[in-house]
């Protein structure tokens, strides 16, 4: 009687809602079937028709059916209970894959109790093998290891090789990839707050601020990073470092040689493989080529405590492109302009022009040129697992559409991806 009384009560307070009636009866049907009691068709009598084919294509309704042997996973390993229940079940020749009914030949692979779709790649439990599902139950694994600077770990339920540091990249005309992976395109020619500590910083109380200054270079539509200023402070000790064009470095206003420089135990400055590298306790590292590519790396200690054009480093790319107020930026231009630094020179940006990369008659040609970045058999294939090539590829096409391949734009775009791979100590063969 409990189900009946509950049904009457629910229907009364819902003013005779048919949906409420259907849910009440369905609850009783489920209880009966769980007790192995036979239930006969009831939905048409109660006007509770379940429209399976519209909600799940290639499916139909059964009052007493089972998915055992009719899902991709159970079709591979059908060790499941044949429990009867009502619901939507796949038509003949189709099996359940997630919330869909797909042809049996489109099923994936089962590995260590987990199901993987065709095309899906994953690491084994020790990151000693990289596996890929090619066809139904056709799983191929090959020996592989994480790069020296990365660790095997599980984050958000996904096992992969993760760097203990996250990287924000600024390059090209310029493009911005935040610590969390959001992408922005902004061509302003002032100085901009790239990254800085904004929240509570614990442990060694290291605080930093990075400002990049952009300048035109022959084309009033695009700009490039021409100088980087870094401020560091810890326990009352402070320093200001400027890296200009051609990798010229100043510390607190004084020019220095960069092969090896130590500043009061606060930062190490060196030049390596065409990059000036600022390293503060391996917790905060800046790489700049003195031309157009800037990388800012921060350890997990700064998680959720940063702000600027590189985002807040909280693992969520959706909340990176915000104004200093914390409100979402309506577009990339508003995002960039809002982070203009108070160190900008007066009148900067007055001659900026807006380009339109959508109007690009040579897009296919430029796409072919930039595909060296994404080519799965090309020189960068070993890096694809660790640095997503897609943002670099699309930004490469964007640059060529605005600037053409002249003036080394193609090489600069490819070099940006090469640098992102190199800081993880991934060896890239000659590609030029």
User: pLDDT average, as an integer?
Assistant: 87
Biggest beta sheet attributes = 8 strands, antiparallel
Give the helix proportion (percent range). Answer: 10-25%
Largest beta sheet: strand ordering: 14-13-12-25-24-23-22-21
- Based on CA atoms alone, the radius of gyration comes out at 29 Å
- The tally of structural domains comes to 4
Counting DSSP E segments of at least 2 residues, the number of strands comes to 26
Q: Per DSSP, what share of the residues sits in E-state strands of 2 or more residues?
A: 25-35%
Overall 3D geometry? elongated
> Would you tell me the structural class of the helices and strands?
alpha+beta
Number of H/I helices: 8
Low-pLDDT regions? none
Domain VWFD: 166-349
Protein name: VWFD domain-containing protein
Biased composition (Polar residues): 337-346
Subcellular location: Membrane
What descriptive keywords fit this protein?
single chain; 432 residues; alpha+beta; Laminin; 4 domains; 8-stranded antiparallel beta sheet; 7-stranded antiparallel beta sheet; 19% helix; elongated
Give me a quick take on this structure:
Residues 321-361 are annotated as: Disordered. Residues 337-346 have a biased composition (Polar residues). The chain is built from 8 helices and 26 strands.
Description:
The chain folds into 4 domains: 104 residues, Laminin; 35 residues; 191 residues, no CATH class; 77 residues, no CATH class. Helix content is 19%, strand content 31%. The protein has 8 helices and 26 strands. Strands 14-13-12-25-24-23-22-21 form an 8-stranded antiparallel beta sheet, with helices on one face. The chain has a 7-stranded antiparallel beta sheet with strand order 20-19-18-17-16-15-26, with no helix packed on it. Strands 7-8-9 form a 3-stranded antiparallel beta sheet, with no helix packed on it. A hairpin with a 5-residue loop joins strand 24 and strand 25. Helix 6 crosses helix 7 and helix 7 runs antiparallel to helix 8. The longest helix has 17 residues. The radius of gyration is 29 Å and the shape is elongated. The N and C termini lie far apart (79 Å).
């Amino acid at each position: 009687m409990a189900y009946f009384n509950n049904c009457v009560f629910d229907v009364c307070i819902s003013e005779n809602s048919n949906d409420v009636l259907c849910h009440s009866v369905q609850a009783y049907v489920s209880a009966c079937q769980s007790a192995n009691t036979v239930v006969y068709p009831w939905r048409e009598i109660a006007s509770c028709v379940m429209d399976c084919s519209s909600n799940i294509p290639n499916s139909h309704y059964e009052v007493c059916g089972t998915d055992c042997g009719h899902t991709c996973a159970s079709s591979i390993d059908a060790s499941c209970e044949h429990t009867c229940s009502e619901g939507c079940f796949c038509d003949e020749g189709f099996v359940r894959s997630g919330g869909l009914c797909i042809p049996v030949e489109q099923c994936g692979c089962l590995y260590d109790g987990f199901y993987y779709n065709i095309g899906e790649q994953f690491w084994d439990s020790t990151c000693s093998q990289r596996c890929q599902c090619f066809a139904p139950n056709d799983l191929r694994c090959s020996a592989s290891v994480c790069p020296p600077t990365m660790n095997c770990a599980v984050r958000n339920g996904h096992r992969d090789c993760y760097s203990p540091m996250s990287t924000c990249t600024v390059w090209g005309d310029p493009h911005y990839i935040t610590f969390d992976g959001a992408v922005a395109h902004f061509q302003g020619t002032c100085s901009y707050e790239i990254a800085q500590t904004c929240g509570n910083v614990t442990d060694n109380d290291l605080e930093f601020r990075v400002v990049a200054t952009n300048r035109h270079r022959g084309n009033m539509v695009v700009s490039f990073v021409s100088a980087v200023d870094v401020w560091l402070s810890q326990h009352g000790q402070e320093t200001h470092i400027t890296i200009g064009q051609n990798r010229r470095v100043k510390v607190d206003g004084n020019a220095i040689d960069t092969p090896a420089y130590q500043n009061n135990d606060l930062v190490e400055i060196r030049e390596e493989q065409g990059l000036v590298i600022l390293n503060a306790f391996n917790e905060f590292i800046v790489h700049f080529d003195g031309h157009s590519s800037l990388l800012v790396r921060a350890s997990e200690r700064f998680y959720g405590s940063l702000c600027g054009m590189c985002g807040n480093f909280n693992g969520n790319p959706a909340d990176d492109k915000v104004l200093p107020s914390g409100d979402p930026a309506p577009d990339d231009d508003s995002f960039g302009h809002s982070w203009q630094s108070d160190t900008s020179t007066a009148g900067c940006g007055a001659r900026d022009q807006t380009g339109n990369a959508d109007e690009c008659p040579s897009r296919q040609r430029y796409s072919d040129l930039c595909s060296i970045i994404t080519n799965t058999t090309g020189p960068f294939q070993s890096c694809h697992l660790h640095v997503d090539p897609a943002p670099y590829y699309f930004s490469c096409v964007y640059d060529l559409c605005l600037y053409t391949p002249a003036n080394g734009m193609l090489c600069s775009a490819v070099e940006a991806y090469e640098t992102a791979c190199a800081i993880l100590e991934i060896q890239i063969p000659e590609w030029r």
